[in-house]
Amino acid sequence: MCLVGDLLTERAVLGVIATLAVLGLFVMLCRARRVSTSVEDAVMDMLDRMSKASSDLRAGLTQEAADKATPHLREMLRCVAVAITDEEGTVLSWDGGANDHYEYLRDTVARAINNCHKEHVDHRKLGCELQGPCSLHSVVVVPLVVEGDVAGTLIVVSGVASKRQIRMAEETARFVSTQLELEVVQKQRQALAQAEVKALRAQISPHFVYNALNTISSLIRTDPSHARELLQEFAEFTRYSFRTDGLFTTLADELTNIHRYLTIEQARYGSRLNVRLRIAPEVLQVVLPFLVLQPLVENAVRHGLAKKPGGGMLTITAEDNGNEALISVEDDGVGMDPDRLDDIKDAHQTGAHVGIGNINDRMRTVFGAEYALVVETAPNAGTKVILKVPKFARNVLPNLNLGSQLTDEPMTNEQPAIRA
Q1: Count of CB atoms within 10 A of residue 184's CB?
Q2: Residue 312 clears pLDDT 90, i.e. is over it
Q3: In this structure, are residues 9 and 368 in contact, taking their beta carbons and an 8 Å threshold?
């Protein structure tokens, strides 16, 4: 998972480099033409166009995305026309004039795709039969290379032939390719994130399902009403945990599910499991990766308190901290040697703690390296896991449909032990 984050960062850097390259060449072009407006205004306009084209291209190389991007690219290049084709040379979008000349360009586009190399032709070699002056003087066809393969081409039609225009076409194609690569990496990142969630479910569910059903079955004869309530809590817990849509959730929804989990576990452990909640209402709508808190709570119960004679206290805290929410899961259980957590990214592979490495990787990938988990522990001194969650992060949105289906009220403020 970290590799995907590193790859995304590397591609983002490449995107910035490509943007700066296009911007630099554009400034040179403006100065060479002695445009009437200031260079500063031209640069601002260029940045605005690049920003709009960038967001359009992040949707992938589709006709809709190309139709939105080509007008911005043409304005950037200040040329006669800009077109984008797919990997077979089929035009997805053509913005500007001379679009009837594409028939003369088919062979040129095919060569650019097959050879993965730019092609430059002038009007004299196109066989244009137009009587009188033609707006097309020069054409540059540059392959759009994504992940090492040609995904399409960028066609730049100019009214004049110049080396600067050719260079601008090349750099713009590189910019477009980088945006398309970022879109591919984003899809890969989402696919891996979904795989991580599936792996986490598989890791958590077997022992808890077994113990929960055993607890419920033991109450069927002695306290059928309580058993029925626990069965309902278990059904809602599994429905939430095994949902198939959405990679993110709100703190309120995560706490509601944790309440279900703890209700079932308290029926099992009785007075050995005490819970204290300190939840600030203003952070309930903070969005965080799906299933990052429940595994930490489960670790506290299984590895901290269940192994301590007489049990102990589990404390869940969420407080406002400016642009972030500070969330902690703490137990006063048996603790562990801190050296066991030196390589926290592999902790989930050893089985020492359920999913802790998975959660750490997801937090770092979604929010950045500065949002890695912080773990404080020592033998016989309990364990505290701290998460920082930004209140706002790009592309981090909750699954609103699920939230509307939940009817349980999340727990807020300081509350004593949960009772069924």
Answers
A1: 15
A2: yes
A3: no
pLDDT single digits (tens) 213-265: 888 888 888 888 999 999 989 888 888 877 656 678 999 999 999 999 999 99
As a whole number of angstroms, the distance between CA 362 and CA 262 comes to 24
How many other CB atoms are there within 10 angstroms of residue 178's CB atom?
24
User: How far does CA 101 lie from the centroid of its chain?
Assistant: 41
Has residue 309 got a pLDDT over 80?
yes
Confidence of residue 210 (pLDDT cuts 50, 70, 90): confident
What residues have CB less than 8 Å from 99, skipping those under 6 apart?
A: 81, 83
Per-position DSSP letters for 204-219, written without gaps between them: HHHHHHHHHHHHHHHH
* Mean pLDDT for the stretch of residues 129-151: 78
What are the residues facing 321 on neighbouring strands?
324
Q: Of 52-56, 68-72, 136-140, which gets the smallest average pLDDT? A: 52-56
Cβ within 8 Å of residue 318, ≥6 positions away: 251, 255, 278, 279, 280, 283, 284, 286, 325, 326, 327, 328
Distance of CA 69 to the CA centre of its chain: 23
Does position 366 have pLDDT exceeding 70, yes or no? yes
Cα dihedral angle (259, 265, 269, 272), rounded to 10 degrees? Answer: -30
Please name the residues in contact with 397: beta carbons below 8 A apart, sequence gap of 6 or more. 248, 287
**106-126 exposure pattern, b = at least 16 Cβ within 10 A, e = fewer:** eebbeebbeeeebbbbebeeb
Instruction: Identify the band that residue 187 occupies on the pLDDT scale cut at 50, 70 and 90.
Output: low
Radius of gyration for the alpha carbons in the chain, expressed in angstroms and rounded: 29
Question: What is the pTM (predicted TM-score) of this model?
Answer: 0.55
On whether the CB atoms of residues 22 and 50 are closer than 8 A, the answer is: yes
The C-alpha atoms of residue 355 and residue 362 are separated, in whole angstroms, by: 10
CA separation, residue 63 to residues 86, 94, 171, 213 (Å): 9, 10, 22, 52
Q: Using the structure block, give the residue that is written with the tokens 């089985």.
A: 351
List the beta strands (DSSP E) in 208-272. 248-250
Q: Among candidates 153, 143, 135, which has minimal Cα distance to 96?
A: 135
